[in-house]
């Protein structure tokens, strides 16, 4: 089923015209209602009236993650607070989170594009959707939740963790659609096997996997172990959350819901658009978002855009699976982690030397984050409990900031290899290619 | 929907201020319909009625509700997964569940209309407690299967306020968000509110640095003393609300700004007070166990649900103009359930987790205390030879495995303390399972 | 060539260690070596004794949680680098040491090191190959 056929299958010329119209409106709203954008536009010498059609988009300045920090918390909002009905946040590169807001209309559009995502993977109103993404400020859980609700499906808001209960409800309520990180789906399969529960016999038919990078190899593993079509979905809170793009049952590229979120691919070092089909950094403009008319947001995700038509009938362009980043952000169990966040926390704690190493690995199917920290000479106590307390404190503080549980290994002073020049702080042993 | 004529705001004055005689008529009509539905659609409940020799036609007045059999948590558990449902599963749009191990939690479902009623009832107590569409509502309840987070989320959304779905935990960040986002209303458990006030003090954040003006607290028992403390520290108007997932979730009742008892939304719930040991009606003013019959619930209608919560009804109407009867704060439980940081915990759940770890049942004791504002659960586990490893790291892993499993299954973080054999106090050979050091009244 | 070691679970509270020592002493068992590892809550006391079964009986009778673990006792040559001479070949063979503790032999003033290996058999094989002598249980008991 195609959830909104009118837009998803719109004639390309017609779509371009609609996008141009919406872009004109978005640029105007940004200029008129967001002082930050007015300044930025003025600096580039661009006025809303210069934006007449879609091709004029290249005249507009980029927005980067740091702009959210500069305008924290609400500086990018284009509407008064009373019109904001929801606020979400994701991790920022330093102490302050990246904050996004939604009007009632925005929530409606988000729910719709999220419902489109579920329909892309075969979901209908008869389905039972189990949402095992985390809920809260993170957009994953609530995004899919509202999408399922809009689709008319039965929603089981499991949130993350508690695999036995996940499996129990999956079986007893006949879950057909599962939304979680790809690695968590494999963990569920493993825990099911360990408990002698045949997950293949459940009614599952599709899995909506995103929030972390994954591979074709992982897809075939998932499809072998779980009775699902594994659908790659894409989204980021700055743009809206999940529901920006999704694979259809063809599983060949993710349809970008470009009547709302307009994609471009640029050369990350020059900022120039790449030739059609060439790999580069993905950039999004929110054409309809009222709360934040986001202009040319640089996602730092590397991909390509495919303009050929998909056999499913949707006319939107398809982005390829994201294959890398242009910055040092790590995605651990679906949570974005910046090494700078870790450093900020460690530097606040007495007894910790400014030498640390971040090691990311897979333990079974799940990502594991280990942080090796050098302990000051004077704190290298022979009393296990003092070290234990320090370890716990570092653990608690990092968990609080990162929202992932890291493994903390205290190591002796001077045991972490020093390198000349830029220290190598991160070792990522996961095979994500 | 706001009442323009007076300074008191109502979400739904037509129902909230309904003349009592009319209300009783509406209740009877809805009760009869509910009983008929159960009789026709829910075989297990029909069996129960038949066993007592009662049929839907016997319900001719509101008093006749007393002829109907009670429903207990155990009944709902045994009817898992579908037997309590009165509608086909296609009509169910949401599933929630109480905390608990796989075999012990109660799972509940909602139709679209149930969801709509639920958010409406939450909107009622939010508005009664002073919320408007201009507010920024900071929800620090957990989301997920637990009804607390979602109940308040949808209610505040309905009122038109800005909702910040912060979810639980990470207290310093909670305060930073309140400060930076200008939250005006806080939603959490009362003890967490006190805890946040303490953390604020440590962070050097003053109440005047925040824009908070309202607090909606529920999920656990709290005293008037606690309210005083919260209001003083956070400079807010703190109101109490009540609900339980078995009958819906939050939104069964809530205080208005008079802060004198929680208005029970009687057009949706019929309430009784009983003597928990005999099941006979209790004197409403003296108090007893609260028993609730849902009047509008479609997916899972519940008749005479024994909440195990003890409270009393207040006499006299409230000056706010709402005609619904008011219940006092919950003063205790008629079973061994503990509420720890807003999470319902039965000692039997913990037993199940402990037994599940190595297949043997260790002697254990739950020690609940209040560390500052927050509840603290310690589980003392006697280390017998089945649980003893020569290696330190295995021993610690064992303790962590229990901690992890408890957090996952029961939903609370507990500290596991390994103790030597025979150190847990026994009475008549049986270990004393719970030591509650909190002073809750 | 393995030696049986007794481990006792102990809470960290005052007087607990002396109670256990008293108990072992009263049963007429001699302690050859001991080590105590602790965390904030509890500790594990490890004992090498001259009569393992007697000590176990007494401890169990008094209601203690005990276990028996196989460890390896190695005499360390009395010269600089003596211990390293043992550890180097072990680590070369990938044998992991879980924990170890040492005591001094009365008669010879030589050090005896008690090892708990992840894989005791692999360790014994390595030690044998490089010609390091491992003490038997009887020898340890009679020290």
Short description:
The complex is a heterotrimer of chains A (about 425), B (about 450) and C (about 140). Chain A is of the alpha/beta class. Chain A is built from 11 helices and 21 strands.
Any idea how many domains of chain C? 2
**Could you give the count of β-strands of chain C?**
7
Query: What is the architecture of the largest domain in chain B at the second tier of CATH?
Result: 3-Layer(aba) Sandwich
The neighbouring-strand order within the major sheet of chain B is 4-3-5-6-7-8-9-14-13
Instruction: Compute the CA-based radius of gyration of chain B.
Output: 23 Å
Just give the CATH class of the largest domain in chain C: Alpha Beta
The CATH homologous superfamily of the largest domain in chain C corresponds to VC0802-like
Name the structural class of chain C: alpha+beta
Helix and strand sequence of chain C? EHEEHEHEEHEH
Overall domain count of chain B: 2
CATH topology of the largest domain in chain C: VC0802-like
Question: Strand pairing plus helix content of chain B: what structural class?
Answer: alpha/beta
CATH topology of the largest domain in chain B: Rossmann fold
Protein chains sharing the most extensive interface: A-B, 44 and 43 residues
Helix content of chain B: 25-40%
Report what the structure shows:
The complex is a heterotrimer of chains A (433), B (441) and C (143). In chain A, strand 1 and strand 2 form a beta hairpin. Chain A has two domains: 323 residues, ANL, N-terminal domain (Rossmann fold); 94 residues, ANL, C-terminal domain (GMP Synthetase, Chain A, domain 3, 2-Layer Sandwich). In chain A, 31% of the residues lie in helices and 25% in strands. Chain A is globular, with a radius of gyration of 23 Å. The model of chain A has no long low-confidence stretch (mean pLDDT 91). Chain A has a nine-stranded mixed sheet, sandwiched between helices. With 433 residues, chain A is of the alpha/beta class. Chain A is built from eleven helices and 21 strands. The longest helix of chain A has 22 residues. In chain A, helix 2 packs across helix 3 and helix 10 packs across helix 11. Chain B folds into two domains: 323 residues, ANL, N-terminal domain (Rossmann fold), CATH 3.40.50; 98 residues, GMP Synthetase, Chain A, domain 3 (2-Layer Sandwich), CATH 3.30.300.30. In chain B, the strands form six sheets. A nine-stranded mixed sheet of chain B has the order 4-3-5-6-7-8-9-14-13. In chain B, strands 10-11-12-15 form a four-stranded antiparallel sheet. In chain B, helix 2 crosses helix 3. In chain B, a hairpin with a 4-residue loop joins strand 7 and strand 8. Chain B is globular and about 70 Å long. Chain B is of the alpha/beta class. Chain C is globular, with a radius of gyration of 16 Å. Chain C contains five helices and seven strands. In chain C, strand 2 and strand 3 form a beta hairpin. Chain C folds into two domains: 67 residues, VC0802-like; 73 residues, 2-Layer Sandwich (VC0802-like), CATH 3.30.2130. Helix content of chain C is 34%, strand content 37%. The longest helix of chain C is centred in the first third of the chain and has 11 residues. With 143 residues, chain C is of the alpha+beta class. Chains A and B meet through strand 1, helix 6, strand 4 and helix 7 of A and strand 1, helix 6, strand 4 and helix 7 of B.
């Amino acid at each position: 089923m195609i959830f909104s056929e009118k837009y998803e299958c719109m004639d390309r010329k017609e779509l371009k015209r609609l996008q141009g119209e919406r872009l004109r409106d978005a640029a105007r709203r940004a200029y008129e209602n967001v002082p930050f954008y007015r300044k930025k536009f003025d600096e580039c010498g661009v006025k809303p009236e210069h934006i007449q059609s879609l091709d004029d988009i290249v005249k507009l300045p980029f927005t980067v993650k740091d702009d959210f920090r500069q305008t924290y918390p609400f500086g990018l909002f284009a509407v008064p607070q009373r019109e904001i009905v929801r606020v979400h946040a994701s991790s920022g590169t330093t102490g302050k989170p990246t904050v996004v807001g939604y009007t009632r209309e925005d929530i409606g559009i988000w729910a719709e594009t999220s419902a489109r995502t579920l329909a892309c993977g075969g979901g209908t109103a008869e389905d039972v959707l189990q949402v095992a993404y985390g809920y809260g400020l993170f957009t994953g859980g609530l995004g899919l939740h509202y999408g399922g609700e809009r689709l008319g499906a039965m929603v089981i808001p499991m949130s993350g963790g508690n695999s036995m209960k996940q499996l129990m409800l999956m079986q007893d309520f006949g879950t057909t659609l599962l939304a979680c990180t790809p690695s968590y789906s494999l963990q569920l399969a493993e825990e099911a096997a360990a408990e002698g529960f045949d997950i293949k016999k459940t009614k599952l038919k599709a899995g909506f996997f995103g929030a972390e990078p994954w591979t074709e190899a992982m897809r075939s593993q998932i499809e072998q172990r779980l009775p699902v079509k594994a659908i790659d979905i894409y989204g980021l809170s700055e743009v809206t959350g999940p529901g920006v793009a999704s694979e259809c049952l063809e599983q060949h590229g993710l349809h970008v819901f470009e009547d709302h979120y307009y994609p471009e691919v640029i050369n990350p070092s020059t900022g120039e658009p790449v030739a059609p089909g060439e790999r580069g950094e993905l950039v999004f403009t929110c054409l309809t978002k009222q709360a934040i008319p986001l202009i040319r947001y640089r996602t730092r995700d590397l991909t390509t855009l495919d303009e050929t038509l998909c056999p499913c009938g949707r006319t939107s362009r398809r982005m390829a699976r994201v294959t890398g980043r242009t910055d040092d952000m790590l995605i651990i169990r679906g949570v974005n982690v910046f090494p700078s966040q870790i450093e900020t926390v460690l530097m606040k704690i007495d007894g910790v030397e400014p030498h640390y190493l971040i090691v990311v690995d897979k333990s079974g199917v799940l990502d594991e984050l280990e942080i090796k920290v050098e302990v000051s000479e004077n704190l290298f106590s022979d009393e296990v409990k003092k070290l234990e307390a320090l370890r716990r404190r570092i653990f608690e503080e990092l968990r609080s900031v990162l929202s992932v549980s890291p493994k903390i290994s205290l190591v002796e002073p001077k045991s972490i290899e020093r390198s000349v020049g830029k220290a190598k702080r991160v070792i990522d042993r996961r095979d994500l290619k | 929907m706001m009442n323009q004529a007076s300074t008191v705001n109502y979400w739904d004055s037509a129902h909230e201020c309904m003349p009592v005689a009319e209300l009783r008529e509406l209740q009877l009509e809805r009760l009869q319909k509910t009983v008929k539905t159960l009789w026709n659609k829910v075989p297990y409940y029909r069996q129960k009625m038949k066993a007592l020799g009662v049929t839907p036609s016997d319900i001719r007045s509101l008093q006749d509700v007393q002829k109907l059999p009670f429903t207990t948590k155990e009944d709902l558990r045994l009817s898992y997964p579908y037997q309590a449902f009165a509608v086909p599963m296609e009509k169910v749009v949401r599933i929630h569940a109480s905390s608990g191990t796989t075999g012990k939690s109660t799972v509940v479902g909602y139709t679209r209309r149930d969801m709509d009623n639920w958010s409406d009832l939450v909107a009622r107590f939010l508005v009664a407690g002073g919320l408007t569409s201009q507010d920024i509502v900071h929800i620090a309840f957990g989301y997920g299967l637990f009804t607390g987070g979602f109940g308040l989320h949808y209610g505040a959304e309905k009122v038109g306020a800005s909702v910040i779905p912060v979810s639980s935990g990470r207290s310093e960040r909670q305060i930073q968000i309140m400060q930076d986002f200008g939250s005006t209303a806080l939603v959490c458990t009362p003890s967490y509110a006190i805890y946040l006030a303490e953390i604020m003090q440590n962070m050097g954040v003053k109440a005047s640095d925040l824009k908070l003006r309202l607090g909606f607290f529920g999920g656990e028992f709290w005293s008037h003393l606690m309210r005083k403390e919260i209001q003083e520290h956070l400079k807010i108007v703190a109101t109490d609300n009540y609900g339980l997932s078995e009958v819906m979730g939050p939104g069964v009742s809530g205080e208005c700004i008079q802060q004198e008892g929680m208005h029970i939304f009687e057009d949706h719930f019929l309430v009784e007070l009983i003597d928990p040991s005999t099941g006979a009606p209790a004197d409403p003013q003296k108090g007893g166990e609260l028993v609730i019959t849902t009047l509008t619930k479609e997916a899972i209608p519940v008749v005479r649900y024994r909440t195990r919560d003890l409270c009393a009804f207040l006499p006299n109407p409230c000056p706010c103009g709402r005609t619904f009867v008011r219940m006092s704060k919950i003063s205790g439980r008629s079973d061994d359930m503990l509420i720890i940081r807003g999470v319902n915990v039965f000692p039997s759940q913990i037993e199940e987790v402990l037994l599940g770890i190595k297949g043997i049942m260790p002697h254990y004791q739950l020690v609940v205390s209040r560390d500052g504002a927050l509840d603290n659960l310690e589980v003392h586990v006697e280390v017998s030879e089945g649980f003893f490893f020569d290696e330190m790291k295995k021993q610690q892993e064992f303790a962590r495995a229990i901690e992890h499993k408890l957090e996952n299954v029961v939903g609370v973080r507990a500290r596991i303390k390994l103790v030597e054999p025979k150190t847990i106090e026994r009475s008549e050979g049986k270990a004393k399972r719970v030591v509650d050091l909190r002073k809750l009244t | 060539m393995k030696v049986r070691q007794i481990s006792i679970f102990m809470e960290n509270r005052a007087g607990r260690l002396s109670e256990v020592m008293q108990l072992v002493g009263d049963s007429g068992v001699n302690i050859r070596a001991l080590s105590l590892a602790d965390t904030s809550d509890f500790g594990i006391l490890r004992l090498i004794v001259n009569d393992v079964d007697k000590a176990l009986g007494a401890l169990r009778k008094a209601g203690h949680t005990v276990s028996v673990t196989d460890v390896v006792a190695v005499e360390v040559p009395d010269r600089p680098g003596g211990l390293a001479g043992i550890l180097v070949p072990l680590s070369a063979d990938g044998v992991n040491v879980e924990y170890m503790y040492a005591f001094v032999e009365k008669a010879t003033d030589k050090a005896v090191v008690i090892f708990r290996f992840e894989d005791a058999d692999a360790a014994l094989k390595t030690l044998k190959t490089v010609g390091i002598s491992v003490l038997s249980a009887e020898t340890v008991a009679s020290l």
